[in-house]
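Input/output pair, single chain:
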Amino acid sequence: MGRLLGVSQPDGSHQAFHRDAAGRLLASTDALSRTTRFALGRRGEPLWRQDAEGRHVAWNYDSARRLQSLVNENGLRFEFAYDDADRVVEERRVGGTRVQVEYGADGWPVAITHHPGIGDEDLAPDDPKAGPRRAAQPLRTELVRDAMGRLVEKRTATHHYRYRYSALDQLIDAVKLEVVSPLAEGKSVQLRALHRSCFAYDRLGRLVGETAIDEVTGERHQLRHEHDALGNRTRTLLPALADQADELRALNYLHYGSGHLHQVNFSLQRGDAPAVHQLISDIERDDLHREIARSQGTLSTRFALDPLGRRAAAWSRPGSLASSFTTRDNSWRQAMDSAGTADARLLDGLMKEYSYDPTGELRQSRHSLRGATGHRYDATGRIEETVRMPLPAAQAVRDAANQERFAYDAAGNLLDASLAAAPRGEMRGEVRGYVRDNLVRVFEDKRYIYDGHGRLACKKSGRHTEQRFEWDDENRLVAVHTTRRPHTPEATTQVARFDYDAMGRRVARHDAFGTTRFIWEGLRLIEERRGSQVVSYVYEPDSHVPMARVDARTSPAAAAAAAASASLPSARVLHFHNDPAGMPEELSSDDGNLCWRASYRTWGATVAEQWEVTALDGRPVRQGEEAPRPVEQNLRFQGQYLDRDTGLHYNTFRFYDPDIGRFISPDPIGLAGGFNLHGYAPNPIRWIDPLGWICGETLSRPVGFNRGSRNFVLEQGNAASGWKHIYDRHVDPLRFPKKSKFNSSMSQDDIASMLGKTLKHGKESSYEGKPVFESRLKYGGEYKRYRATVNEDGTVQTFHPLD
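Output:
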């Protein structure tokens, strides 16, 4: 029947799939013989799932076969109500919150209302001096669509958003407006424009311009893009610097073959003078086009890959690495084994090594400056323990600072490990771990207080820090009040405020010392500006993994110096050295020295940072009188940016708290992002969530597939995949008569257009490890549901109607 029963990997590991006589999946067994089981109904609907640790998730249905409730691992329920057209009109969540959906005559949602449950602010305050708390109010969002179903306006009580599209269905304008005077009898709503985002495209539909305009200050930032004949981006012109408007700053990308990145460089052109180019990185690839080496200033970094293509080692050293290496080479083994000991046999450079278990979990990493780190997981991949063995290895001690243990409830909420390990009835004294309504309330010395919408309202860290949080009508964090030494005469409070654009991206951060402005390339932060400091970021292709940063300054003095010398170095380029998940560990300058280092706890909290300039082996490097300024490096997990005064990580559409490894507000996409609305991932070593929506494995990103823009490749294909597969099964009326068919009047371009909309706007899930997207689209006056499946290499396997 051609049904998948097993997968054998090049490293010898094997995964098995167990099916019933009808081919339905009943169980999946991983490479360590750990089994996840499924129960299905008569029509194939899931009834329950039991993971390898014995935890259950259950689905219940009504008489019309509609999902009536979802029961999570803790036994807590999500319940759903429907109208006569089988559309969800209400979702009742854990904790008593409700989401109501209203529909228009065309079937599109026209309003969504979030009703709060009983939040902690509805209860008596634990501190009488704090005063009464304001209970959360219902949050209503109205949606206005055009005749094609495109969102043209969104309205909340405090803001309106307006969107315009091109004739090719591309977003060209998004405006955020503030409600100055609400609607009243005889009066219309008074609005004030706050921010505008504009997008420009060429005749082939490729994005060539992104402009961000602050309508209050008039400040404007523009990105311009150029592409080659294959659609690969070859140049991004960065926004002009203040006082240096005649300079053209650009990031240039060179590709080979069908679009494999070969080089990145930075160019600066002043007036009519020729552009001066500064190399950022040359990239070397193997026969499978996987990166195996890159230049980083005077350093060369070479990567060793295991049989599954995972990074097994990284070696950074001065000069050029003429040949590849493996972790089995004698010189490499001797150097790693002796690092930090009295008889060290150092290969010059920075060395890292990684070992994985048969299921793909990182079990051990070794670092020539920091020593070894080991990880232990449960049968479902949740991280249970991290042990660090710092150098020198002979003196390593497993003290509290180098050993972390984690415990969870059944739904994955973090508990204090000592609480979970204690026998029932033997816990005495202060409670150091407590979860209610799927929300972590107490962890170690930290207390968390939530409002009725499940958003963090207050965080208390011991007796030394108290933070209060303000939210807007769209569950976005707009202010954090941080008080040090609260309730004492020495108490001091810092306030940080945040601005967002019409796309939901944070564009400004204000504090008592100034403003940081953020400039975006799609959903990736490409530049930040604060005072005279400007930092531009360069990323690995189709990811949020930082490759390098370009530091510049804006000031009259800098402009004068630039004008005085056409050969003045364009900018200061710093190179990232990351762990396998993309977390920055070191920054090196073009001269090959390390200028920043950091170490972290497992869930991303920073343990220590070092700004001293050192050689790759850690020896201090003596600096002259004009030593470079210390570097502030705020990128953390992919898509995350550290706010130092709050301790939170901004994560595109949410904020992440590294103290508990969770988001501080519910998932904006609801259950589509997972059954735990505040959860980040089973572990942050293998999993990432750059947008704050849904986690994915770091090693499974399909080549050429960009989650943010839904780029795809629809090849001619064959009987199993691509356009031929789609045509044979879902277009040709004479073949596969039982398969669903597209409207007979649809052309190939029509189908490709609907495929693009499905990949861009559709609801995402996965099936047997492949991304699956579903949408509801209109053609010829009729709405239908469509599904697309994408292969691991970014090509489309199939696309077809469901109705």
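The longest helix spans residues 748-761. Residues 128-132, 393-398, 423-431, 700-713 have pLDDT under 50 and may be disordered.
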